[in-house]
Amino acid sequence: MSLEFEMSLVGELSYFLGLQIRQMHDGIFITQAKYAKNLVKKFGLEKAKHCDTPMSTTLKLSKDASGTKRILRSPTSLRVKRIIRYVNGTSNYGIWYSFDTNASLVGFSDADWAGNCDDRKSTSGGCFFLGNNLVSWFCKKQNSISLSTAEAEYIAAGSGCTQLLWMKQMLVDYGFNQGTLTLFCDNMSAINISKNPVQHSRTKHIDIRYHFIRELVENKCILLEHVGTNDQLADLFTKPLDATRFKTLSRSIGICLVE
């Protein structure tokens, strides 16, 4: 790169755009400890009791009569403080990127069916790995109302396929060719819909942009594989989880504490 751009060698990278980077012999650990601690200090919660999760599983966000989110009407409420307390307890945690891995691209997609209390729209979630390393993730409210869990999962899989194809093209530009991409889904009905070439009454009302999954599966661009609910890593991005489940999935996607 020095032949094309004016560059200078200033030593091993340790801090970049708010990211603290530790380079080790077997991988790279990236954290935002400095930013997190400054955030906690700003709110004066350095000595507050830590929380295991950023959000309670019993908390339901809904609109009040005026149409304003209750969670936003009181920014100093216990709910917001809970998030800061969670950040305080996990400020030294980060993402681990191992050198000992391959360059295969895989993804996980999941959905929280009808999780929104106001309009009953579902939430799509997904995460994507290059080998064992987490490289991308998303959490997005779906645009349409799903009539079943299968529909919500199918729409989430459509979003996951779009992301996988985009990442595949990026890797090709860098010289890493990919074959058939695997997307893991924990709903067999959604997988069966993707393999059914007939537009029967159960699926024809789903927005057409999501039916391109069928073409991808037929052309062997995407392989939809079933994964057990306990091993569905994208569950972390769809809804609040209890502490045990939250910590298990966090470790599985590479979030850890490096001494």
From TrEMBL:
Domain Reverse transcriptase Ty1/copia-type: 2-56
CDD domains tied to this protein: RNase_HI_RT_Ty1
Alphabetical list of InterPro entries matching this protein: DNA/RNA_pol_sf, RVT_2
Any Pfam family matching the protein: RVT_2
Protein name: Reverse transcriptase Ty1/copia-type domain-containing protein
Biological source species: Acer saccharum (Sugar maple)
